[in-house]
């Protein structure tokens, strides 16, 4: 099954582009892994499967800390 975009992903404002925050991409991948494979989504978004699995394996507290740090770096 292939991912289908209703809009041009390059014009999406960077919502899921990895040059912004890989956390957003990883969250999308986690939420949609029942519909698509991690491998498919990693290829589309330009992230590695191993990076996703490393992120997914981290504890919730370290994940929240990283998200807060990343959000403040892009302001």
Shape: globular
Low-confidence stretches: none
Order of helices and strands, N to C?
A: HHHH
Number of domains: 1
| Structure annotation, total helices | 4
**Helicity level:** 40-55%
Task: Give the number of DSSP strands.
Answer: 0
Q: Write down the overall mean pLDDT.
A: 76
Strand content: under 5%
Calculate the terminal CA-CA distance, rounded to whole Å.
Answer: 36 Å
Which structural class matches the secondary elements?
A: mainly alpha
Q: Mind telling me the C-alpha Rg?
A: 13 Å
Q: Biggest sheet, in brief? A: none
Structure description:
The structure is a single chain. The chain is mainly α. The chain contains four helices and no strands. The radius of gyration is 13 Å and the shape is globular. The longest helix has 14 residues. The chain has one domain.
Key terms for this structure?
4 helices, mainly alpha, 75 residues, single chain
List the helices and strands and how they pair.
Blueprint: H1 22-31, H2 38-45, H3 49-57, H4 60-73
How would you summarize this macromolecular structure in one to three sentences?
The chain is mostly helical. Helix content is 55%, strand content 0%. The protein has one domain.
């Amino acid at each position: 099954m292939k991912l289908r975009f209703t809009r041009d992903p390059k014009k999406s404002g960077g919502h899921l582009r990895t040059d912004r925050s890989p956390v957003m991409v990883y969250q999308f991948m986690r939420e949609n892994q029942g519909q698509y494979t991690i491998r498919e989504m990693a290829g589309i978004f330009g992230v590695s499967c191993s990076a996703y699995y490393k992120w997914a394996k981290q504890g919730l507290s370290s994940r929240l800390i990283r998200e807060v740090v990343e959000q403040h770096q892009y302001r």
